[in-house]
């Protein structure tokens, strides 16, 4: 009996962190609603219905969750290895733009264009992340700062390239900063013609399983975990921490860039300037990674929940007097609680290191 009990606990482990953070956030949200005169139970019921109550709403939630899952996996791989990069947004942007341009302008059969387009998109994202690793390795430039700055530069550089060279002037007369559409035969098939869900979501789930295997069943996974615990100690243990950093950031960039590629192939069918920034997808993905403690299965679950808060939030604004911003309050509270957890763990770790050092002296 104890054996099955322990197995059940291990299976449920990825749910613990998301459940605590999201549970506290919903309590805070309920308190805010009470102050505004709204009934939290009624509002949350409408939110749940607006996210899961029908195939239409469920497909919208899963479609919204797809890029969040991929950027969350990217953040998990990097942060697990002690590489605090936050460049997922920029990697999404250039992954999407590169994939769209190759799909539109490369000659040849569609299946070849699909393969080269996807490889090109993820390669650009991986390359951007490698450049951040190089700046840290050679110039000691903070990963957080360099990747954050790349987000802003990527946004405006991509916009400039579209406007100057690749602007679609046929559909809106150039009013929208977007490329032409990719060919219809290259788009992700929809699960149902009437719903937004495409095979992109199922590809993301497969990638979750692959990343879980990579992090838990391979030599790289063990070495990245040890490097994340203590880079200096891992070096003394024979682990090449520099190699782990480069590899982790490259994988992270590839995953984040594929989030942008999936949006081109499954949602917009073109690159639309600002579309990957307006929803804060990469930052929500980082939240998913943090609240799941970098566990890929936890990222999948957290991403769906965070996506449901967004899709359910639109239902709240339609059917109640509670504004759509309640979903942003919930996400902000989740971020706050996770940040507090990280600070507490960091202070405990620092205190433990101090105790060990004093004991050694």
Task: Supply the key terms.
single chain, 361 residues, mainly alpha, ABC transporter involved in vitamin B12 uptake, BtuC, 14 helices, globular
From the N-terminal CA to the C-terminal CA, the straight-line distance is 47 Å
* Unreliable stretches covering 5 or more consecutive residues: none
Number of helices: 14
- Helix-strand string: HHHHHHHHHHHHHH
| CATH topology assignment | ABC transporter involved in vitamin B12 uptake, BtuC
- Major sheet: size, sense and barrel closure? none
What does this structure look like?
By secondary structure, the protein is mostly helical. The chain has one domain (17-346): ABC transporter involved in vitamin B12 uptake, BtuC, CATH 1.10.3470. It is 78% helix and 0% strand. The chain contains 14 helices and no strands. The chain has helices at residues 2-35, 40-52, 55-80, 88-105, 110-139, 143-166, 199-217, 219-229, 231-236, 241-268, 275-278, 281-291, 296-319, 326-360. Helix 3 (55-80) runs parallel beside helix 7 (199-217). It is globular.
Topology:
Layout: H1 2-35, H2 40-52, H3 55-80, H4 88-105, H5 110-139, H6 143-166, H7 199-217, H8 219-229, H9 231-236, H10 241-268, H11 275-278, H12 281-291, H13 296-319, H14 326-360
Summarize the structure.
With 361 residues, the chain is mostly helical. The protein contains 14 helices and no strands. The termini are far apart.
């Amino acid at each position: 009996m104890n054996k099955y009990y322990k197995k059940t606990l291990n299976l449920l482990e990825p749910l613990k962190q998301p459940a605590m953070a999201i549970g506290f956030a919903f309590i805070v949200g309920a308190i805010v609603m009470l102050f505004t005169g709204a009934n939290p139970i009624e509002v949350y019921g409408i939110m749940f219905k607006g996210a899961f109550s029908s195939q239409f709403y469920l497909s919208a939630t899963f479609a919204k969750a797809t890029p969040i899952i991929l950027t969350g996996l990217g953040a998990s791989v990097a942060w697990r290895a002690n590489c605090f990069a936050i460049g997922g947004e920029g990697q999404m942007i250039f992954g999407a733009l590169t994939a769209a341009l190759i799909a539109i302008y490369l000659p040849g059969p569609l299946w070849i264009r699909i393969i080269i387009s996807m490889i090109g998109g993820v390669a650009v994202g991986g390359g951007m992340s490698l450049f951040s690793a190089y700046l840290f390795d050679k110039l000691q430039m903070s990963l957080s700062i360099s990747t954050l700055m790349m987000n802003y530069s990527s946004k405006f550089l991509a916009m400039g390239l579209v406007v100057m060279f690749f602007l679609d002037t046929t559909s809106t007369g150039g009013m929208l900063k977007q490329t032409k559409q990719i060919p219809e035969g290259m788009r992700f098939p929809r699960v149902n013609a009437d719903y937004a869900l495409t095979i992109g979501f199922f590809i993301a789930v497969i990638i979750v399983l692959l990343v879980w295997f990579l992090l838990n069943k391979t030599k790289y996974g063990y070495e990245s975990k040890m490097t994340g615990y203590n880079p200096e100690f891992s070096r003394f243990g024979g682990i090449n921490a520099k190699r782990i950093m480069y590899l982790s950031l490259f994988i992270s960039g590839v995953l984040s860039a594929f989030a942008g590629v999936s949006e081109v192939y499954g949602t917009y069918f073109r690159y639309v300037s600002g579309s990957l920034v307006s929803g804060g997808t990469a930052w929500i993905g980082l939240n998913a990674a943090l609240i799941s403690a970098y566990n890929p299965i936890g990222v999948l679950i957290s991403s769906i929940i965070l996506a449901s808060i967004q899709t359910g939030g639109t239902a709240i604004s339609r059917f109640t007097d509670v504004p759509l911003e309640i979903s942003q309050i919930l996400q902000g509270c989740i971020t706050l609680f996770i940040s507090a957890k990280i600070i507490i763990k960091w202070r405990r770790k620092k205190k433990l290191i101090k105790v060990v050092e004093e004991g050694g002296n």
